[in-house]
Amino acid sequence: MNKKILSQIKQIDEQISVLSERAYNPQLSDSEQKEIAKRKKKLQKTKKKLFKRIDKVENIRDTL
Questions:
Q1: Could you tell me the end-to-end alpha-carbon distance of the chain, in angstroms, rounded to an integer?
Q2: Please, which of 7, 19, 28, 56 could form a disulfide with 32 given CB 3.0 to 4.6 Å?
Q3: Residue 53 burial (C-beta neighbours within 10 Å; 0-12, 13-18, 19+)
Q4: How far apart are CA 18 and CA 40, in angstroms?
Q5: Residue pair 5/53 in contact by the 8 Å Cβ criterion
Q6: Which 8-state DSSP code applies to residue 26?
Q7: Using an 8 Å Cβ cutoff, are 15 and 43 in contact?
Q8: 57 is in which domain, residue-wise?
Q9: Residue 59 has pLDDT above 80, yes or no
Q10: For 52, what's the count of Cα atoms within 13 Å in the CB-facing half-sphere?
């Protein structure tokens, strides 16, 4: 299960990287920049939840 979660985290990191590169485009409108920032924030929140899930799984294993 950890491998699946780590794979998801890696994909999220790649998506965040792509969005970060797009954000540097000076020709983007304000609404497009806001949308990119919104997506990045959502991805970072999802990534944080996945890390918490990994910690939870590891804590369960430790108690067994």
A1: 16
A2: 28
A3: middle
A4: 10
A5: yes
A6: T
A7: yes
A8: 2-63
A9: yes
A10: 6
Query: Which pTM does this prediction carry?
Result: 0.85
* Two tokens, residue 64: 């067994």
Residue 29 has pLDDT above 90, yes or no: yes
Task: Enumerate long-range contacts of 8-16, CB under 8 Å, 24 or more apart.
Answer: 8/50, 9/47, 9/50, 9/51, 12/43, 12/46, 12/47, 12/50, 13/47, 15/39, 15/43, 16/40, 16/43, 16/44, 16/47
Residue that has been written with the tokens 């304000």 in this structure:
30
Predicted local confidence at residue 26, as pLDDT: 87
pLDDT of residue 57: 83
**Domain count within the chain:** 1
Which structure tokens are listed for 53?
Answer: 């899930």
Residue 44, both tokens: 């970072």
